[in-house]
Amino acid sequence: MLSKKLLQIVPSATFAMKAKAQELIRQGKKIVSLTIGECDLPMPKHVSSAALAAIQAGHHNYTDSGGLYELKQAIINKFKRDNNIDYTVNQVMAATGGKQALYNIFQAILNPGDEVILPEPFWVSYIEQIHLADGVPVVINTIPNNFKLTAELVKQAITPKTKAVVLNSPSNPTGVIVDDQELKKIAELAVKHNFYVISDEVYEFLYFTEKKPLSIASFGKEIFDLTLTVNAISKSFSMTGWRLGFVGGSAEIIKLMDNLQSQSTSNPNIIAQYAAIAALNGDLKCVYEMRDVFKVRRDFIKSKLATIPNIEVAPMEGAFYAFINVGKYFNNQIKSSFDFCLKLLGEVGLGLTPGGAFGPSCDQYVRMSYAADIDVLEEGILRLKKFLKN
Ligand SMILES: Cc1ncc(COP(=O)(O)O)c(C=O)c1O
């Protein structure tokens, strides 16, 4: 018998849908794939130049498992500059993507049976990573509250076994941002009930609200001690394939995560680390230019979706996703978001991600990534309309 735990793990639905779309593309079909959360814009020139310089300088060796000292300094500076959080060098580490940083966190803080409050809709990997660490996800549904997480919802889920809450603002898959007032109240709850806050801020620069979302760890010493702030260069710098994420948190937890990483993957790729130093120390102009491009796309998709009858869309406040309720189009043949996406791909060649992957209450939804050129988005909307008319 193979590992019982791994036999239960569901593969990432976003990767699965992307693979299906790519298979059809290889067969010569004209597919519009708006499945995966991946920026199509080029990465910043100064960052690729730094990576090239690192190769030319002959950097080829292992580094400290948590990353080069210079990278840790860059991470510290970034958290100070963008998030108003003061970490020291033993309170930060780099990992192979934000995903590995999160995996390390769950492994470091959870014992069997510990509960993790997980607001739904949630990014697909949290729930599986919690299972992999023998934790128990306690899913709280934000859909009836127009996808807005509130402290009251968190409060209702707290039990003596609560070990942590996961925050992801702006959110994948909804794009919704947690309001500052609620964030403050969630911080108070965490301090009062002594549980950790895992704050996944990988979409921090992709906000279309007036001001940048705040980082919960910046609210004071007590919540700082309980928070693990996760980030990555993946989304902000259009560098998903470089696999470089990072985290700030208490030295005690970072040490455990570092130990785990040293025994599993050793260290993030050294050239990606040099690239990240350039990205994190550099000017943020390139990041805001990308955000401006996404704002245009967001406005475009939002206005187009508004013309389609019988669908509802979550507030598009950030990230690069539209989370769309297509439940009114379900019928005898389409009984779930998975059926919907498979038929959509087969009939009109449009790839979207089934909402069912983002939580048990999300099966009437589909996620459309608008990290694509306007022409591609326009074609995607045309295909969606054509499909819905059938
Ligand atoms: C909410 C969220 N967190 C973390 C990640 C992981 O990012 P990375 O590519 O840096 O591993 C993703 C990637 O899709 C994400 O959407």
Topology record:
Blueprint: H1 4-7, H2 13-26, E1 32-33, H3 45-56, H4 69-83, E2 92-95, H5 97-109, E3 115-120, H6 124-132, E4 136-141, H7 151-157, E5 162-168, H8 180-193, E6 196-200, H9 221-226, E7 227-232, E8 245-248, H10 251-264, H11 270-281, H12 285-305, E9 312-313, E10 321-325, H13 337-348, E11 350-351, E12 353-354, E13 365-369, H14 374-389
Parallel strand pairs: 1-11, 3-4, 3-5, 5-6, 6-7
Antiparallel strand pairs: 2-8, 7-8, 9-10, 10-13, 12-13
The structure holds pyridoxal-5'-phosphate.
Report what the structure shows.
- This protein is α/β, with parallel strands linked by helices and 390 residues long.
- The protein has two domains: 4-43 and 286-389, Alpha-Beta Complex (Aspartate Aminotransferase, domain 1), CATH 3.90.1150; 45-283, Type I PLP-dependent aspartate aminotransferase-like (Major domain) (Aspartate Aminotransferase, domain 2, 3-Layer(aba) Sandwich), CATH 3.40.640.10.
- It is 43% helix and 14% strand.
- The chain is built from 14 helices and 13 strands.
- It has helices at 4-7, 13-26, 45-56, 69-83, 97-109, 124-132, 151-157, 180-193, 221-226, 251-264, 270-281, 285-305, 337-348, 374-389; strands at residues 32-33, 92-95, 115-120, 136-141, 162-168, 196-200, 227-232, 245-248, 312-313, 321-325, 350-351, 353-354, 365-369.
- Strands 2-8-7-6-5-3-4 form a seven-stranded mixed beta sheet, with helices on both faces. The chain has a four-stranded antiparallel beta sheet with strand order 9-10-13-12. Strands 1-11 form a two-stranded parallel sheet.
- β6, α9 and β7 (227-232) form a beta-alpha-beta unit.
- The radius of gyration is 21 Å and the shape is globular.
- The N and C termini lie far apart (46 Å).
- The mean pLDDT is 96.
- Bound molecules: pyridoxal-5'-phosphate (PLP).
- The site of pyridoxal-5'-phosphate has 13 residues, from α5.
